[in-house]
């Protein structure tokens, strides 16, 4: 909040330049995944300050992107009466989470080329396909990935998700489902007018597993043998206790 | 009750998982099978990643079989010699299964192979059990007194294997190769499908090995106990997919369910129980067969590279 205030105070001086100034903030810069985590609601807000003399209305688009990972997408086909995986296509940078919120539908704000450059929509995610498959097929696999992740709530598009008040302050709410991947998330905010991106700013959000949940993952990864022993001990103990209950009953 | 599963990486309704474990527990109390064949598909249906489902179900089956083994060993219902030979085979099988799992995963065919295996095995075993159960019920339905006592003989293939050992508790003089191979097959299935294999082991011990009926369930549970422990460890070391929170919830349910199942088992007639198990197994097999042939909801699947 403090930098936002400072910038607001400094606005008259900054306004000497030609481009608007964006001051983004996030409600939480750290999201802790612990027991009982059912998802998080992230508020992205801030101010857009127009340069002196320019009385323009800006559109705001907010893009929240999770850590990317290389993935293989498989497509099922009916072979000999059975649905099984047939084709596959690899993508080097599929974001684990991707949400776009805008003050108006993106197609009304910018043309497709600009939307593609700034990744302003789930159709424009740069997935970096690898291997030699024809572009049409790649597009089919990419849209398959997007449709699947949209269904899981991991890819979102909200064409009216940004609210702008007084032409200066904006806010957008993005819901993170419980199945989000941990890591560093980037929130990019774009101020757009006349079909051109005039200003952009980024903020970082850290999603981490903490407490017991974080420790379980750490032990499972680092001390796999101990973790296995622990799982076996737990099941033996619970089974044994059940046996005692049987004997009594 | 929302519970976050740290390895599966998502939040689930804890009560649903406990109830699911409870269903499995009822089955294990009723029929002496681990019930993994029901848990794994239901967990996957609930949205748990398949590998995590299979790995954690194996952990749960360990717990479900402990009390069974204890109960059966108290009344000398375990052939330890036979069981240990099978465990040996099971461990070899689990290792083969782990390699197969990785190979099929790389090919992207693990799911379809698991489903086909389920359909084939549940279908054939269900039919076999159904015929047997109806055969046992027929005389009593027709009012001809009790079912005829059937003299069990082992399969001719088993008799042709060399190096015979005496298995006193089972009343058998057969080659240890037969139970070793049987244990190995079940070990492979445990690793691939997260099932204990009781639904395969019990009929195979009865109809292929020809073991005497009073040690079949106990020995099968003994084998399952050790093989699922090895499977849990193999998963913990290779796929790192054992979710201890998920397994704990399943265990909680199955501990309670098993009591329930035993209560019912004490009151119901075994022929009807077997008929019910056969019907259940056939229904699941048909459901999975239908699933193979019908266009799935999701044509695309994503796997990390």
Automatic annotation (TrEMBL), chain A:
Name the keywords, alphabetized.
Membrane, Signal, Transmembrane, Transmembrane helix
Give start-end of the signal peptide.
Answer: 1-15
Q: Which residues cross the membrane?
A: 225-247
Q: Which InterPro entries match?
A: CHP02186-rel_TM
**Pfam families per the UniProt record, alphabetical:** Alph_Pro_TM
The source's domain of life comes to Bacteria
What is the name of the protein in this document?
Alph_Pro_TM domain-containing protein
Automatic annotation (TrEMBL), chain B:
Give the membrane topology, semicolon-separated if more than one.
Multi-pass membrane protein
Principal location class: membrane
Where is the protein situated, by its record's location annotation? Answer: Cell membrane; Membrane
Q: Where are the transmembrane segments?
A: 12-38, 44-71, 83-104, 110-130, 180-209, 215-237, 244-266, 272-290
Report which superkingdom the organism of origin falls in. Answer: Bacteria
- Choose one Gene Ontology CC annotation of this protein and give it: plasma membrane
Q: Which InterPro entries does UniProt cross-reference here? A: TM_pro_TauE-like (IPR002781), TSUP/Inactive_protease-like (IPR051598)
Task: Could you list this entry's UniProt keywords, alphabetically sorted.
Answer: Cell membrane, Membrane, Transmembrane, Transmembrane helix
* Family statement drawn from the similarity comment of this UniProt entry: Belongs to the 4-toluene sulfonate uptake permease (TSUP) (TC 2.A.102) family.
Query: What is the official name of this protein in its record?
Result: Probable membrane transporter protein
Q: What is the lineage of its organism?
A: Bacteria, Pseudomonadati, Pseudomonadota, Alphaproteobacteria, Sphingomonadales
């Amino acid at each position: 909040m403090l930098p936002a205030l400072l910038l607001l105070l400094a606005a008259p001086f900054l306004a000497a330049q030609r481009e608007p100034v964006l001051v983004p903030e996030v409600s939480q810069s750290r999201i802790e995944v612990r027991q009982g985590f059912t998802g998080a609601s992230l508020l992205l807000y801030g101010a857009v300050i127009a340069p002196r003399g320019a009385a323009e209305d800006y559109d705001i688009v907010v893009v929240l992107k999770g850590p990317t990972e290389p993935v293989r997408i498989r497509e099922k086909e009916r072979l000999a009466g059975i649905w099984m995986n047939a084709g596959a296509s690899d993508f080097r940078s599929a974001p684990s989470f991707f949400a776009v919120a805008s003050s108006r539908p993106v197609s009304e704000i910018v043309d497709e080329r600009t939307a593609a450059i700034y990744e302003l929509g789930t159709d424009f995610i740069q997935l970096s396909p690898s291997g030699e498959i024809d572009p049409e097929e790649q597009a089919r696999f990419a849209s398959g990935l997007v449709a699947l992740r949209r269904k899981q709530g991991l890819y979102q598009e909200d064409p009216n998700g940004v609210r702008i008040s007084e032409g200066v302050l904006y806010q957008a709410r993005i819901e993170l489902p419980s199945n989000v991947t941990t890591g560093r998330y980037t929130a990019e905010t774009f101020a757009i007018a006349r079909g051109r991106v005039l200003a952009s700013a980024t903020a970082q959000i850290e999603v981490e597993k903490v407490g017991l949940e974080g420790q379980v993952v750490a032990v499972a990864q680092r001390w796999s043998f101990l973790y296995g022993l622990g799982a076996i001990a737990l099941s033996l103990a619970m089974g044994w206790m059940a046996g005692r209950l049987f004997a009594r009953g | 009750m929302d519970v976050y599963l740290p390895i599966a990486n998502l939040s689930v309704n804890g009560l649903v998982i406990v109830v699911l474990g409870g269903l499995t527990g009822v089955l294990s109390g009723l029929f002496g099978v681990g019930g993994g064949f029901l848990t794994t598909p239901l967990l996957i249906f609930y949205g748990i990643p398949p590998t995590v489902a299979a790995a954690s179900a194996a952990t749960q089956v360990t717990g479900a079989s402990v009390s069974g083994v204890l109960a059966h060993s108290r009344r000398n219902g375990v052939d330890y010699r036979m069981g240990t030979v099978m465990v040996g085979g099971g461990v070899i099988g689990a290792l083969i299964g782990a390699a197969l799992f990785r190979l099929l995963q790389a090919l992207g065919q693990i799911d379809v192979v698991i489903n086909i295996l389920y359909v084939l095995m549940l279908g054939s075993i269900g039919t076999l059990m159904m015929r047997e159960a109806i055969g046992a019920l027929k005389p009593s339905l027709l009012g001809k007194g009790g079912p005829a006592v059937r003299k069990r003989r082992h399969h001719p293939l088993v008799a042709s294997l060399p190096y015979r050992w005496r298995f006193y508790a089972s009343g058998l003089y057969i080659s240890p190769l037969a139970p070793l191979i049987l244990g190995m097959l079940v070990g492979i299935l445990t690793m691939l499908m997260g099932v204990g294999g009781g639904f395969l082991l019990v009929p195979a011990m009865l109809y292929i090995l020809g073991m005497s009926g009073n040690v079949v369930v106990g020995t099968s549970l003994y084998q399952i106990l050790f093989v699922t422990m090895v499977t849990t460890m193999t998963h913990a070391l290779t796929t790192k997919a054992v979710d201890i929170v998920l397994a704990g919830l399943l265990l909680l349910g199955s501990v309670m369910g098993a009591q329930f199942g035993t209560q019912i088992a004490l009151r119901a007639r075994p022929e009807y129980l077997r008929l019910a198990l056969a019907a259940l197994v056939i229904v699941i097999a048909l459901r999975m067969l239908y699933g193979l042939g019908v266009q799935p909801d999701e044509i695309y699947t994503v796997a990390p590279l």
